[in-house]
Amino acid sequence: MSELIGGLAVLGFIVMLSASNAIFEIRKLERERKERDLKALKEQEDWLLVQKGIAMERATFTKMAKATLAKGPCKEIV
User: Fold this and answer.
1) Which DSSP state fits 65?
2) Is the dihedral of CA 8, 13, 17, 23 positive or negative?
């Protein structure tokens, strides 16, 4: 009888360790997924900032070109 109880205790301990290990792995995977998501968001934010800079440069160039054209035809060759 005590062998049965001892065997069940060992089996219960093994099941508990397996469950604990599974929970640890799930948390580890969730942490890695969050890190990947955060990295992807940061890369997307950087890309958007670059696009904004390009758009600002384009707008500045357009303004300068319109101002130059408004002056009339250029007679000097640079």
Assistant:
1) H
2) positive
23-55: pLDDT as tens digits: 999 999 999 999 999 999 999 999 999 999 999
pTM over 0.70: no
C-alpha angle 64-70-75 in degrees, rounded to nearest 5:
95
Chain length of the chain:
78
Determine phi and psi for 38, rounding to 5 degrees: -65, -40
Q: Could you tell me if residue 77 is left (phi over 0), alpha (psi between -120 and 50 degrees) or otherwise beta? A: beta
Alpha-carbon span 72 to 63, nearest angstrom: 15
Dihedral sign for Cα atoms in the order 69, 71, 72, 74: negative
